[in-house]
Amino acid sequence: MTENEERDARHNARMARKKAVIDDRIAHAQVERGVLLVNAGNGKGKSSAGFGLVARALGHGLQVGVVQFIKGRADTGEEAFFRNQPGVRWHVMGDGFTWDTQDRARDVARAQAAWALAREMLQDPGIGLVVLDELNIALKHHYLEVDAVLADLRARPPRQHVVVTGRGAPAALLDAADTVTDMTPVKHAFAAGVKAMPGMEW
């Protein structure tokens, strides 16, 4: 057997063992229910990952609801695209970043209004995916009560999926989540003086 043949044989053996492990995991993962996914951390991509799931859900014929906390601009690329898609309810409910508004009372009122809308979606079994964009920030600043939010999340229809995004996710939410992804910043163009560009940042 040549050196290349030996290498190929070792590779094939490793892949066969890996396939057996993965197949076993798949065979034991048979529960079908909605999942709670949290995209947290200081890196970019938390909301973008959530909106990627909007596209995936629509591809499978699911109805989707999006509530954007904190964020106030209504000219983002994702909204321009998804708002015109059948099966999407999209609501921008914030007044902008907290350092821009500088008005806690108004931020609290907007967050509570957003949650009232989110609660309606969480009670609708016809909606297969609910994206609660930047909810983590509203929870971090105590605009909403974590326990009340968790109660509504637990009471949602059993097949409904929920994605929560934003920095500063509270521990109780992370504990309740089925899947948690922590976006870790490595490098960002903004640090080198590159302005936020359409199609990349908004």
Main attributes?
202 residues, 45% helix, 6-stranded parallel sheet, alpha/beta
What would your notes on this structure say?
The protein contains eight helices and six strands; from the N terminus they run αβαβαβααβααβαβ. It is α/β, with parallel strands linked by helices and 202 residues long. It has a six-stranded parallel sheet, sandwiched between helices. The N and C termini lie far apart (56 Å).
Topology (SSEs and partners):
Elements: H1 3-28, E1 36-40, H2 46-59, E2 63-68, H3 77-82, E3 88-92, H4 98-101, H5 104-122, E4 127-133, H6 135-140, H7 146-154, E5 161-165, H8 171-176, E6 179-182
Parallel strand pairs: 1-5, 1-6, 2-3, 2-4, 4-5
Radius of gyration: 20 Å
Reading side by side through the largest sheet, how are the strands ordered?
3-2-4-5-1-6
Q: Note poorly predicted spans.
A: none
Please trace the helix and strand order, writing H or E for each element: HEHEHEHHEHHEHE
Structural class: alpha/beta
Give the tally of β-strands.
Answer: 6
Q: Proportion of β residues? A: 15-25%
Overall body shape: globular
Main beta sheet, described?
A: 6 strands, parallel
| Helix content percent band | 40-55%
Distance between the termini: 56 Å
Enumerate how many helices there are, as a single number.
Answer: 8
- Whole-number mean pLDDT: 91
Summarize the structure.
The chain is an alpha/beta fold and 202 residues long. It has eight helices and six strands.
